Amino acid sequence: MNFMVYKLVGSLIVPPGLFSIVLILIAISVFKNKRDYNSCGILLLFSLVLYLCSTPLGAEKITGFLESRNLSRISFDEDAAAIIVLSGGSTYDNNGDAVQPGSLTLERVFAAVKLAKEKNLPIIFSGGKVYGTEKQSEASGMAKAARDMGYKGKLILEEKSRTTAENFSYLAELVNSAEIQIVPAEKAEDNKKLSFILVTSAFHMPRSLLAAEKYFPEAKMHPYVLSRYTNPKFTGFQQLLPDGYSLMLSCYGIKEYLGIILYKVF
User: Fold this and answer.
1) Other beta carbons less than 10 A from residue 172's beta carbon
2) Could you give the CA distance from residue 82 to residue 123 in angstroms, rounded to a whole number?
3) Model pTM?
4) Does 168 lie in the same domain as 49?
5) pLDDT, averaged across the chain
6) Are residues 27 and 87 in the same domain?
7) Dist. CA 162–CA 134, nearest whole Å
8) Are residues 103 and 199 in the same domain?
């Protein structure tokens, strides 16, 4: 019991749990002093939404749905030309320079390297200088990480993209260019029907496949998703405690839903 109280108090005295408590207190104050039911209701609703988005259970309901959409399924009987890896951010040094892939990106690189070694396939890393201030592209950082992991096969870099849509737009240009030979010359005439294994985070896969269909329609993508970040199983009391990591996961999911809507509308 003492442990549960400790975890509960710990989750409520720091953000985002603290923010929910503060909003509730403000709502009570508004109700007592002004009898403003509308403002009070809005504050309480916002507090509830923030609380739910900040819990592991809420993150699973929001982002977990996306993660469960595509299980790792690869038709190995199809002649995949290469493994495509989408970047997911970098980490920085004290000077603000991107020095290596972030945790999301490293997990994708690691999965791709393992798969490439098993299937003897080249890897295409896609990711540019997102804000234009970085010293190296995200694709370059991923390539260095792959070499550090012991991968000695062929690496191809797409270093212009800043968004998921641009990933596939520039990948289409890269694959169809005469400068890059992904498949043997005798199969070059089939470039417009190439099959790829797509590696990205599970929550990012649904939007990535939509972007691939829209901006790289001549290619067939086989999703290879990594492990989930949300827990699909309710394990108890701790699933109801707010924390910053769960709020971040919920924000990832909300961003993906908005991206999916935009792809379908525009």
Assistant:
1) 17
2) 6
3) 0.90
4) no
5) 90
6) no
7) 12
8) yes
Q: In degrees to the nearest 10, what's the CA dihedral of 206, 211, 213, 216?
A: -140
CB count in 10 Å sphere of residue 102: 16
pLDDT digits (tens, 9 = 90+) for 113-154: 999 999 999 999 999 999 888 889 999 999 999 999 999 999
93: phi then psi, degrees, rounded to nearest 5? -95, -175
Domain span at residue 44 reads 2-66+230-265
Q: Each residue of 11-26: pLDDT tens digit?
A: 999 999 999 999 999 9
Whether residue 116 sits in one domain with residue 35: no
- Which two structure tokens, joined as six digits, stand for 82? 């290469």
In the chain, the DSSP E strands lie at 80-86, 90-92, 98-101, 123-126, 155-158, 195-200, 220-225
Distance CA 186, CA 210 (A): 30
**CB count in 10 Å sphere of residue 253:** 24
Indicate the SS3 state at residue 159: coil
Residue with tokens 């997911």: 88
The residue written with tokens 């043997």 in the block is 184
Residue with tokens 């040094």, as numbered in its chain: 93
DSSP letter for 203, please: G
